[in-house]
Design goal:
This protein is an alpha+beta fold. The chain has 3 helices and 3 strands. It is elongated and about 50 Å long.
């Protein structure tokens, strides 16, 4: 990945989204986190193999997936309903 790809200070935390939604007349209903199905070092190794052309996207997808998690520090999704 290129340097400075992510500016962590700009990422919106779940609590910030909940507050913004409430101010806009929405009720936050549900949210879930995601995490890799393998360790971070293993995932990075897999991504390197793809970048080097050693694996196709299909091969990467067979080894690496995102699975549901309670951890919302990196990736999460949810939904809200208009009040």
């Amino acid at each position: 990945m290129p340097p400075n790809l992510h500016v962590w200070e700009m990422f919106i935390k779940p609590e910030e989204i909940k507050s913004l939604l409430a101010k806009s007349g929405f009720e936050w209903k549900e949210h879930h986190g995601s995490e890799p199905n393998v360790s971070i070092p293993k995932m990075l190794g897999y991504l390197r193999k793809r970048v080097k052309g050693e694996w196709t996207f299909v091969e990467l997808g067979q080894k690496f997936k995102l699975v549901g998690s309670k951890d919302m520090n990196i990736l999460y999704a949810g939904y809200a309903i208009k009040k």
